[in-house]
Amino acid sequence: MMGRLLDWLRPAPAPVAEPEPVPAPVSVPAVSPRDCGFTDAVLDGWFLGATGELLKGFAIGADDTLLDVGCGEGAATLFAVRQGAAVIFTDSEQDKVRELARQVDAMTQAPALGLVSNSLPLPLADGCASKVVCMEVLEHVDTPEQFMAELVRMGRPGAQYLLSVPAPVGEHLQQGIAPAAYFQAPNHVQIFSHERFAALVEDAGLIIEHRQATGFFWVMGMIFFWASERAAGRDMAGAVRDRIQAPYPPLMEGWARTWHDLLMQPDGLAIKQVLDQFMPKSQVIIARKPMAGDVTPGSAG
Length: 301
Description:
37% of the residues lie in helices and 19% in strands. By secondary structure, the protein is an alpha/beta fold. The chain has one domain (32-288): Rossmann fold (3-Layer(aba) Sandwich). It has a seven-stranded mixed sheet with strand order 6-5-4-7-8-10-9, sandwiched between helices. Strands 1-2-3 form a three-stranded antiparallel sheet.
């Protein structure tokens, strides 16, 4: 009895604290620079499969023949193939033309032709295409006026043109960090102001229908790429955007995650648009080849 009483009078043992549960690690989705760049492009109106528009205002259908000059990896050509169009694609690099031809052959029975050419001139008939795409090519060309004349020759009357070149602000920033070879042949030998780009298109006889400038994501991405390569002591000669492949520098991957997180914010798109206007990577023109009776710039009065 006394023993039980003493037990009651003794203080109760302190409860053993349960260990705090360890939170599960937060899974951050991997976002590659390429994937993030694609998402960014779609927000700008590119690759609109539901409406068949390669860029909003530049629709491609099964009745079209698309000419993709300087096709590179072939994003425009493959989009056109998915819309049922016939395609002609050219590039100065044989490996790129061969690989794109393999993909096109696997996707379509529509007419397709791949050519290895520097495009001056192209061995194609006048008016062979109803849609002409030439993206991020003119800055590589010593004689852009002659090149544009060749593009205009191959579009039929009424043909639409989708043209892009780097924006000057992004190019000038990269001149401070990119290797000298990036601004030497066969890389970028021209920098087009907005006025010069428009004049090049209109002086070739085309009517401009739409202009836009976008790509802040890629300006910063390229700067981070150059910085990473310099810090690692690697030779950067000849590196252009379509040659930057995984594994990406950690700084580029971190930037892609940051940009992806920004785009997910309620005001992310509005912020992106402000930054795109402030420091774009590319400037784009959609233009049209006149038909009989059309008034071209400078022809009235």
